Amino acid sequence: MKITPRKRWFLWSLILMLLLAGIPVWAGEEGVVKSGVANVRKGPGISNAVITQVKSGQVLPVLDRSGSWLKVQLHNGQTGWISESLVNIRTVAEKKVVVTGSNVNVRKGPGTGFPVVGKVNQGDTLPVLGARDGWYNVKVAGVGQAWIAGWLVKDENSSKDSSQPSRGSISTKQLVVTGNGVNVRKGPGTNYATVAKVYKNAKYTILDQKNGWYKIQVGKQQGWIAGWLVSVSSAQPPAPPAPPAPPASPVPGGSLVVVVTGDVVNVRQGTSTETAIMSKVYRGDRLVVIEKQGDWYKVQLANGQSGWVASWLTEPVQGSGVSRGGTQRSEVLIVPIADNQVFKVAELAGRVELILEGWVNGQFQVKQGSAADKLVLELEANSTRNYEGEIKRLGVSQVKVYPQNNKSIVELDFASPVTHNVAYDVNSKTATIHVGTAQTRGLQGKLIVIDPGHASVQPGGWLDPGAVGPRTNLYEKDVVFNIAFKVKQMLEQAGARVIMTHMGQTELTLAGRAEIANVNNADIFVSIHANSSDKGLYSGHSTYFYAPYGDEILGPQRYERQKLATLVQREMVKMGGRIDIGVLEANFAVLRETRVPSILVETAFISDAQEEILLGQESFRTQLAVGIFNGIKAYFE
After folding, report:
1. What's the per-residue H, E or C state across 118-158?
2. 80 half-sphere exposure, CB direction, 13 A CA radius
3. Cα separations in angstroms, 231 against 175, 212, 216, 542
4. What mean pLDDT comes out for the span 128-143?
5. Which domain of life is it from (predicted)?
């Protein structure tokens, strides 16, 4: 179940109820359900009401005994009683963690959005009751059951190693980056400017920690990285020096990205404070620079317009001349045209950039050729240069340079239709032509990643069911997998290629699901869920996207993400026929971590009396699948 504002208070109240109902104790035993389905009852005996059923292989922590009955903890935190004859008992080693942070908050749930219920101190040892999403469910003296961030504790056994320094010593710790292209910031929070970017599996020594953030050294820079994007371990031996962050690029070619440092900064029509204000940007916003004049940057806005901002109210983003995968721009062809005038072809993360050095803006033209797969550059130059070649690995079947009257002509033939946009830097007299693949219509050949929500393997071997229908015990994971598989089949019949993040269960983290789309360079990512609310107060369809304007990767995708969400929501409402809640924006992990257009679909409310019944019906699931398919199809058309 995704933690939306509507759901958060539901979770808090649920967890509070569980706390009041009794605090589970780590008993050192767990029961594995034997074959078939077993009843779990309110009390120890068959005369007590059945509260739920568990399936073969499900692992249940044992909390207490009464005769031949076992009190067990269920996947949703509730407790119940099961006959010992229906499970196989196994002994498990008691797990404890030691607090490494100072004055650490413990919370009602596994996330910083949950209320603080107490504090623990460095060196405190806490029994572990369970784990979820990088957080430990622990027993805290005077508090009871609570949750603590996994990056602020370590396994008790690791603290007993005599070769390690005294426990809690932050200098003995190192972290490994688990996210891809993670920002390192000036301070411990997302409101601070980015000073560097680090990449997956890179290791750094921890210098300090604060509010769930770690201070690290990246090259000559020190900065802070979010604790939920790293894993922490003891440094054995000390970590080698971290690789330096990629250097910031100078403008040319709009490759410079700046972050706004003023609270509210005017975007103007010209390079003076006397010119008209056309828009405003805010602290933390990231802007792509497409031209520079004196102390002013011409920047691209989210609505497609461009305007000028004062450079003294911004700071360059370290590594902004580097692709999101950390690949430097490499020049693959250099053709001198005339004195101090050069034409270059460069590669940046597998994409083609054409670079013109030495021409004043207006002395060159870039035109689409007679075919969509051809670009023609007309350059004012007194040149006799001739060149002919190809760059097959970049999809350039021919590059041809030749003189024509008082001009030099460059013709490029590509393997498929292309688009282009031009950025120019006045100071260096450099134009960069970014070449992209033209969007073809229809689903044929498109690569789509479908993510059925939940079904993650949890500590103990059971699967995260997502939300559970209160009347029919319907599991969200089963409903959405059924819908997702139907969507997969429809897309494949229409010619698309589909990757499912799992086929019924997965050990991937949420970031790992998103990474499937990233590494395969998918066209879109669609995560499918069922919604839930307290007491069944809400019903209807909704679709989420996430693309903050200030994010250098997600911000430019805002139009595409919102468009995809809007079309899928429209078609799902048509087919499902329930209330149209609308298109919403939320910082869900799978949306935040994907680097391609992505959405999260909430098909209907499994907590609603009518929609729970509908979600259990094959016909309604098919209607939802058709709606999602139609929305995806409309997006590509």
Report:
1. EEECCCCEEEEEEEECCEEEEEECCCEEEEEEHHHEEEHHH
2. 21
3. 5, 12, 13, 33
4. 74
5. Bacteria
- In angstroms, the CA 150 to CA 459 distance is 14
Fold of 24-91: SH3 type barrels. (2.30.30)
In tens, the pLDDT along 72-100 reads 877 656 788 998 888 877 655 556 788 88
Q: In this prediction, what percent of the chain has a pLDDT beyond 90?
A: 27
Residue type, 68: S
**CA-CA distance, 27 to 43, in Å (whole number)?**
19
Domain 330-437 in the same topology as domain 257-316 = no
Domain made up of 96-159: CATH architecture:
Roll (2.30)
311-324 burial, b for 16+ CB within 10 Å, e for fewer?
Answer: bebbbbbbbbbbbe
2 is written with which tokens?
């995704």
User: Shortest CA distance to 74 belongs to which of 64, 61, 93?
Assistant: 61
From residue 536, give the alpha-carbon distance in Å to each of 52, 605, 626: 19, 8, 26
pLDDT in tens, 2-37: 445 555 555 555 544 443 333 333 335 678 787 667
257-316: CATH homologous superfamily? Answer: SH3 Domains (2.30.30.40)
Q: Is the pLDDT of residue 598 over 90?
A: yes
| Sign of the Cα pseudo-torsion (535, 538, 541, 545, in order) | negative
Contact indicator for 605, 620 with CB cutoff of 8 Å: no
- ∠ at Cα 368 (363, 362), nearest 5°? 15
98 alpha-carbon distance from chain centroid: 30
